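Thread: quick sanity check before group meeting

JM: Hey all, I'm pulling together slides for Thursday and realized we never actually wrote out the predicted structure for the chain we discussed last week. Dropping the sequence here so it's in one place. If anyone has concerns about the input, flag it before I start.
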Amino acid sequence: MTTDPWLANYAPGVDWAAELVPMTMPAMLAEACQRYGDRPAMDFLGRRWLYGDLASMVERATRGLQDLGVGPGKTVGLFLPNCPQFIVCYQAALAAGARVVNYSPLYAEAELRHQIEDSETDVMVTLDLEALYPKMASLLASSRLERLIVGALPDVLPFPKNKLFPIFKRKEIAAVAWGPAVTRYADLLRNEGRPAPVEISPDDVAVLQYTGGTTGVSKGAMLSHANLTRNVQQTALWLPDKRLGEERMMGVLPFFHVFAMTVVMNVSLHIGAEIVMHPRFVLDDVMRDIPKKKPTLMPGVPTMFRAIADHKDAASTDLSSIRACMSGGAPLPVETKHRFEALTGAVVFEGYGLTEAAPVCSCIPVKGENKAGSIGQPVPGTRITITDPEDPEREMPPGEAGEIRVEGPQVMLGYWNRPEATAEALTGGRLRTGDVGYLDEDGYIHIIDRIKDLILVGGFNVYPRHVEDAIHGHDEVAEVTVIGIPDDYAGERVKAFVKRREGTGLDADALLAFLQDKLGRHELPKEIEFRDELPKTMIGKLSKKELVAEEAAKREAAS
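JM (edit): ok, ran it. Output follows.
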């Protein structure tokens, strides 16, 4: 096999061998604030801060954390939606030499407790909202947590929203039990901003990003400062036409997820972009904000791009400011890509990554060939190989499927306190992804499916993604998820869960007739269930685990 086959046909304007400088996150932020000090850094629901303002807030928050005992060896948790407090405390904790853990507000208390204990989190930052504070107040009393830092949205809202929020949203505001272990965020910043110097190495662990909680006990991927800063550089290099200090980044993906943490939050700070922040993705709010704030970059997930394209006002809304969108988290249907690009004039390019790789590993070229069904080429400094799942030392030739493996400066140090899991995931310096795919002659990667999602029908391999792609081809299908369910005769059979496009009446017989010449007999769904909504993950990616659990519960109830 040709070494690094992508090099002969690499993304125009991108140097695969570009120097990737290992830096600490505080050094990267300091460089950005010095270069872009008078440029806008954040827009939160209409209130804006310059990079100089951000630098000042981070310095004061760093000093405030140090006064609370935060420093090297300590862990600070963030239990927050997208808001200025997230960015400030993320950067301040790292500047103090601590580790950061991003906590999903969607997790149940049991999973939050596991991550608190496992990561040795002592300090947690949250907001005084009913959706957040009560969980952390309970965990302050029942876990190793020693302190809560509690912020308030009015502190970061513009006038008159800051005055109206406590009046019209008072039911959403929790009653905080202030005391020695509960600190106001505003008090954290009430100092002169002269943090004590801290020695931080690019090789130090910066973030413990938890993964795998949906399939068992979640593990903390140890991402070093160098992992994060070099993945930021890799991602920025992929945008050859970026305008330093002038871009506006639409920030609707949740910062607590690794995709948004890197591609939205940290890339923005690196290139001097203004982050147009939304606490979460609310379609109507985003549609109102795009023509008003004119974002130029908008990372997202396929369901988000589909929702915008399907919006009733899409054709009459000015979306032309958007120039480039990285799509991740799930396969991007070709039809969704084409509709969104036609609507906006933007380039939508699909990326691929994993939590364990900080996360970006490959992307479709922004200017080069966009091969249908591909996840593109490795980003600079990254090697992707396909190996025999049964013999990891044997690389598969172009066109032959195997397990996708990643080698690069963004690959994690390992799993926190999980040496056996680390040894299994990192073999020979390469990260096992658990994805099945192949490399073509031009070095483009094609994912077939997740190894764990493979369906065995009568001894034949059925890849859910292949079936989903075929079903997506029907004009009346909005979303689809395919899983395998037990079958007494064939071992497993294919079941499809389908959301119809609004205003259509597709039925199972019509869909099966459409699929007859697109799928093999063993690949055709034996069951099709139509639903108004399909389960999704925290970033809007279609999720199979809830459907698998539902089917298991049905079987148990029937037995």
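AS: nice. The longest helix spans residues 51-67. The first strand starts at residue 40 and ends at 44.
JM: adding both to the slides.
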